């Protein structure tokens, strides 16, 4: 953590640090503090005792670093041309989350003071990011992922002093990217993905890679709630499996029907499509469902 945030109490989910940020980030900060952002995400809750889920997977707290860079003196309300966001391409050979495009992050360790330290530590381990140039702005409310039984706190930050970053361990991270925000907002790079069970989520095209799942949901909700969205075709709905197979993601274990079913039938969840108001998840009657009897330890059960 940097600046005044270092000496203040350890930020927890729902906290704002009060560290200064560029004017162009004002709309995003407002959306992340007045409920507009998390109101665009599916509503789920972890087990009351934060214990194992129904297939025995233990609950764990986690954090991701949502790190934006861009001109410090740009007034907004829209991002400047040089605005970027830090993303990683996980190695396709990994057993868990293989080939996915994600924010740096991971589980909160016992030695971490909380989600901020976890997010910065993971970013350093994955990309070599030095935290002294990062201003942590807010720790957003936790988002629960039923399949992995993780409660994930997005840590929103501004990259005050951008530096060269790269994959620290190619066996874990295939590529580190600072993706232009304008490219992600370009309507030509936006569409929806749908699984045969009806699970539907936002997606972004970046070169030959596809950003989807948890990461795309966070970005879509941020862009919409901040008023940064451009008019894009929400009726452009593509097949999840086919789209990933044609991409360079190299995902070995894609969303299974069991996983999609458990998310969509969770009584604590709704059918909200993250960051895309007016669009709902739903079953596609023209496609047959996959078998739903995957073993609990089958890696395809967890795509995020």
UniProtKB/TrEMBL annotation:
<feature type="compositionally biased region" description="Basic and acidic residues">
    <location>
        <begin position="256"/>
        <end position="269"/>
    </location>
</feature>
<keyword id="KW-0464">Manganese</keyword>
<dbReference type="InterPro" id="IPR000086">
    <property type="entry name" value="NUDIX_hydrolase_dom"/>
</dbReference>
<protein>
    <recommendedName>
        <fullName>Nudix hydrolase domain-containing protein</fullName>
    </recommendedName>
</protein>
<dbReference type="Pfam" id="PF00293">
    <property type="entry name" value="NUDIX"/>
</dbReference>
<keyword id="KW-0378">Hydrolase</keyword>
<dbReference type="InterPro" id="IPR000059">
    <property type="entry name" value="NUDIX_hydrolase_NudL_CS"/>
</dbReference>
<feature type="region of interest" description="Disordered">
    <location>
        <begin position="249"/>
        <end position="304"/>
    </location>
</feature>
<feature type="compositionally biased region" description="Basic and acidic residues">
    <location>
        <begin position="45"/>
        <end position="59"/>
    </location>
</feature>
<keyword id="KW-0479">Metal-binding</keyword>
<feature type="domain" description="Nudix hydrolase">
    <location>
        <begin position="58"/>
        <end position="206"/>
    </location>
</feature>
<comment type="similarity">
    <text>Belongs to the Nudix hydrolase family. PCD1 subfamily.</text>
</comment>
<dbReference type="InterPro" id="IPR015797">
    <property type="entry name" value="NUDIX_hydrolase-like_dom_sf"/>
</dbReference>
<keyword id="KW-0460">Magnesium</keyword>
<dbReference type="InterPro" id="IPR045121">
    <property type="entry name" value="CoAse"/>
</dbReference>
<feature type="compositionally biased region" description="Basic and acidic residues">
    <location>
        <begin position="281"/>
        <end position="290"/>
    </location>
</feature>
<feature type="region of interest" description="Disordered">
    <location>
        <begin position="1"/>
        <end position="59"/>
    </location>
</feature>
